[in-house]
Amino acid sequence: MYIFKKLATKTQTAIYYIGWYQLLGGLGGALYILYSLIAVHKRTSLQFLVFGFMITFFIYSIFCGIRCIQLHRKALTFTMINQLLQLFGFAFSGYAFRYIAGIYLTVGVNLAHSIEFSLGYGFLKFDFSWNQHSPELWVSFNLIAFALVFWIETLAARFKEELKA
After folding, report:
1. Which member of 14, 17, 21, 76 has the greatest number of CB atoms within 10 A?
2. What is the pLDDT of residues 111-131, one digit of tens each?
3. Which structural domain range is residue 69 located in?
């Protein structure tokens, strides 16, 4: 069910902006994945499968953005899931996962040979490795996603109250 009012409240305006952030991040990521797939000259079925897996996350971000723009009742639930997926990244014994659809500022720890702290920033990120026999061992934490999770939590309570009114 969609909620429309002539005058948007501050909460609804914030949800609207979060929606555009997710929509643009998802579109940027999906286009980048498609470009990467096209740029590969010799494609295998495994590459199509991996690229399909990767693009699914960015499509979900687009879906969340549209729901927020529409002020859908469950928009913040979908958005929370999307941001929680972007909160942590890791690499351990040949397996790695890090998904970020939008702006990121990460702090991390690399434990491969010694303890190294890192700071990263940018726009769009997707790291995925499956059984690569890599000695990498790191964990990263996305500060932007953390701030959004906190903000979404406060907006959710206010939005719920506005829906009751």
Report:
1. 76
2. 887 888 999 999 999 888 887
3. 10-164
